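The freezer alarm interrupted the setup, so I double-checked each line after restarting. Inputs confirmed:
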Amino acid sequence: MGRTALFLVLGLGMAMGYIGMQMYRADQDAMETQYAYMKFMFARNLARTAVHAALRSYDRNENPQVHVQTSFNGGTFELDSLQSSADLDTLRMVTRGTYAESTYVIKLKLYRTTRPFPGVNAAIGIRAEPVSFSLSGKASVDGRAYDTTGTTLLGTGDKAGVTTMEPADSANVATVGGTNIKGLPPVKVDTSVIDPKAFLDIYKNNADFFYNTPGTYSSVTWGSSSNPVIVYCNAGDDTSFSIKFTGGVNGWGILVVRGNVQFNGNLNFYGLVIVDGFNTTVSFGAAGTPGVVGGMIVAGNAGASVTLKGTGANAKVVYSPGALGKARNIGRLRYYTILDWFE
Amino acid sequence: MSSMIDMVGAAILFGVLILSVARVQGNLNTTLAQNTFNITTQTTAMSLARTIEYEISKAGYNVTGVRVTYADSTKITFRGGMAYGAAPDSITYEIGGSDSTTMNPNDSRFIRTVHSSTPISQRLGMTEFKITYYDTAGVKMATPVTGANRLAIRGINIRFRVESAEPVTDASTGLSNYNAVTWEKLTFPRNLGRPF
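Predicted 3D structure, all chains:
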């Protein structure tokens, strides 16, 4: 009896073990089916991440590295190949995402361009009518085309020094500026100056430097010649110069000031300066040598004021198509159109 | 006398044991059947999902002009090269008629057509197949999408539900269930937005 019971228990145990293994195998099969799909999805996401990483490298004015594996989220991604046209407007790339034993490859061709840019066909383009304009001291405005440093005349592509919306303003600016305004011609009427308002949100959302509190700023550097940036200053509607830049300020790219701005001391900005507000006042203070190389758009309500003073010889606004071109090509303002995408 | 009691006791114990084993065996069979249907349904769903993802992501690749040629809530036809640099194929997905070969009263055939070849009618246990479309602004489009509106399609959301062909009956409750997998994915085929 005892022996029979022992065999019975042993037999039951073996049967249970066999059934248990069958169930475990079934569970494992189900899990592997899900896991295989998960690996495929992860590999695909990593391959897409490689595309985004490469484009973000361009945005930072860096060259994406080919055949460099980056570990991310338990897998890796890399750029298998990268080819671009000479002017970088067409990019071909092959990316690879790997997760466990799953690999996903994407081959694509992109067209790279920049967002619409509020062009300025003068050293200072004024889009407010009427405008109050005064110029004194050694301050000057020069619409002739300079190189990106603002030191050498190009000899071609000269623009007007100042453009206004109304003939009366144009005449007033010409009288007030006299020989301190140069250009082809020094002053003219140009009603085609683009209202920069449509661009401000883009610049605000992509700003590298954002000043949201009124104040005085000095000894700051915004970007570099090879890495222009976006600076956004929200000065508000305070007419008492709520944003002031004084001494040791250097910047490259796009400087947006909502409200009033006063440039004092030694300031050098290379690119596009947009001053927009309800009752805009742009003032170059009497002290120091503030300078803008590129172009400036002043937009605001009737009565907007532009005051240029400055004691130093460099207190000036000069037109530079090269500096404006660099501002247009800020990495964050580029966008890509898909020409081919194979995955 | 004592050996008689032993034998009767052993018989009772054996009977209880056999009944228990039979009950366990019944439950195990149900579980195994559930697992088998589960695996089958999952494998079917994943396989179909991979096929749809593979093909739908190529919609518009190497195609000039209209990329989605037919866009309704249960049928889609799109064009796209299925291999790198390949000429475009035309692919159609649609839900077919009811599948009378299974015990599941709700399943229908899934029909996939490549080019104008004979449609492949598949018995996958599909009980739901729904397609929605999104335009350039990410707004859901009314179906069917026709005419020039098809050029505005940027996102394609596909949802399907696959159920087992046979039900699994719970021995204790007597309730029958069909194993099911629902898959849904909104895809933005990159080539649909190409400028030419």
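Quick read of the result. Chain B touches chain A at residues 6, 10, 17, 21, 28, 31-32, 35-36, 38-39, 42-43, 46, 49-50, 57-58, 61-62, 81, 84, 190-191, 193-195 (CB under 8 Å).
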